Amino acid sequence: MNTLKTEILPLAEREEVPAGSITTKVILPNEIEGVTIEFVSIGGPFQFRALSHRGIYDVILSLNGDAVIEIDGKEHKLGGKFIARIPYNKNYIIRVGKENEINFLRLVKILDKNDIDAILSKPDDHSYDYINRLSFNKVSKMVCYAVTTGAALIHGILRYKIPSWKTSVHQMWLSLLLVGGALFGVVDHLWNGELFLFGGNLVVDLLLGVTITLVIFITWAILVVLDKSKGISPSKTLN
Known about the structure:
Layout: E1 21-27, E2 35-43, E3 46-50, E4 56-71, E5 74-79, E6 82-85, E7 92-96, E8 101-110, H1 113-121, E9 130-133, H2 142-161, H3 163-166, H4 169-191, H5 202-228
Antiparallel strand pairs: 1-2, 2-8, 3-7, 4-5, 4-6, 4-7, 4-8, 6-9
Helix pairs in contact: 2-4, 2-5, 4-5
């Protein structure tokens, strides 16, 4: 049975790379057959030059920092969470400016004859660079604000129908808190383009919405208790 290796390299705890230098560390050796994984840290100003070779294929996965990668005379930005596939048999340079730094994984595939034959059979598929920023979108949670919004609507209807609630200052506070919570959720999701999107786990979304609404009710109850504990008898109704 194969066992999965785990290697943790906490960036926050590693030694800082001196300016104008590079450090490399091979991680997970022999974990993937024919692939060498290097953890590379560069402190600028520095130029990392990689010469082309027909027997290897390079992929760069940047973790954080700021640099420029030049491939076949074309420059591309290389920041945190970028992936760059180097075209087959092409030189590339990673330039790190003064006072900048970059940390990345360099995955080098050692090609055998079958690999090379497959690449040469479709050269167009391996002759262009692929550089893209990785996007880790957070899960949308529509229902969380829907619960608070529903609670605000229900409370508003009850206030309209129950005469004593209409004139109650405390019930007005609850209305304001619920409406404020609902508006915050709506504006937050609208800002992130997630107003009408559902998350992947409806139950978790519902629990989050219920928790937010309960916190609003608990906050309101504390405010009411504090107000009543003053021992003063101001009007508790709205004229």
